[in-house]
Fold:
Amino acid sequence: MQTVPFGKTGKIVSRLGFGMMRLPTVKKDDGSQPIDREEAIRMLRHGIDHGINYVDTAYGYHNGESEIVTGLGLKDGYRERVMLASKLPQWLVNKEEDMDRLLDEQLSKLDVSHLDFYLLHALNGAAFTKLQKLNYKKFLEKAKADGRIRFAGFSFHDEKAEFLRMIDDYDWDMAQIQFNYLDDQYQATVDGLRYAGDKGIPIVVMEPLRGGALANPPRNVKSLMDAHPSGRSAVNWAFRYVGDFPQVATILSGMTTMEQLKENLSVFEQVLPNSLTREEHDFIAQLKKSYLARVKIGCTGCDYCQPCPQGVLIPRIFAMYNESYMLNQPGSLHFRYSGVIKDGGDGSLCVECGQCEAACPQQLPIIETLKVIHGEAAK
Structure:
């Protein structure tokens, strides 16, 4: 297992981190799907025995069960062999004392004395502003001083400008971002990653496989990979792209089967910073282009069509439509569109007033496309 220094912490971390959010489950008669604890613990310990030393969980993973199972898996001397990260569920924080209460609850669930890394979870601009008002810095400094946490960071889901604002607001020990070869201009972006690196803040990457989608490419993308002389798998290409950035310390993978874990352990013997050749970078750019060629409608998400007088969530609908085709996941469209219907913004509300098409810089046939999407997704 390849390892790298973890910024100013003085720690050495494995490049592969064990993400405890997609653990194996068992389906019960009542429809619930709790974690298969025996198998999850077996996988976690196998990963640690083969070099993984960064374990990432969170308050809400697996409906709150992940922290409990993580703690169980780290018994019998395994806790001392890893750096353990969990996250503050900021959406449950309404007053300053909530932060202390939640951290204590998490330490109890994990049955540990301290966390090596504690992250403010899933920050966007509004959530961060709330935590600023509730004096998150005071909380983190107190938790460090009393030994409940060693290092502090945040995980991020918003635009680059918000990422830069957060990076500059505190003396962070690390940051966690979504990053892969399809999303390198999304959320924090490559520029944000490099900005953090220039400030000495190491990056932990989540969603390197885009929720597993990059592990199962559509036919046109897979044909390119099959023709490449390296013979690398889709998983290999995705991990090597992310791992090539020297600012990236650890890459998290949420693994559901022992087979996935073993494949990842094998791949990460070769995931080194600055190891891709120019030809390999060009090939990954070709893969990205092939994915984007599957996009159905050229919506840029500029929001000029918003607000719709009838409340139709046009950019959101177009984004999910494009993504379902780009990743060859037609089933995801129905699931995600049901959320739009629930939120009262689906295409059936369109009265064909034409305001959106008049405002669209791309001159897209919005009205007809909404009909097509609604017909496919609302079945």
Notes: The beta strands are 3-5, 12-14, 16-19, 54-56, 83-88, 115-123, 149-156, 174-178, 203-206, 248-254. The longest strand covers residues 115-123. The mean pLDDT is 94. Residues 124 and 158 are 5 Å apart (CA to CA).
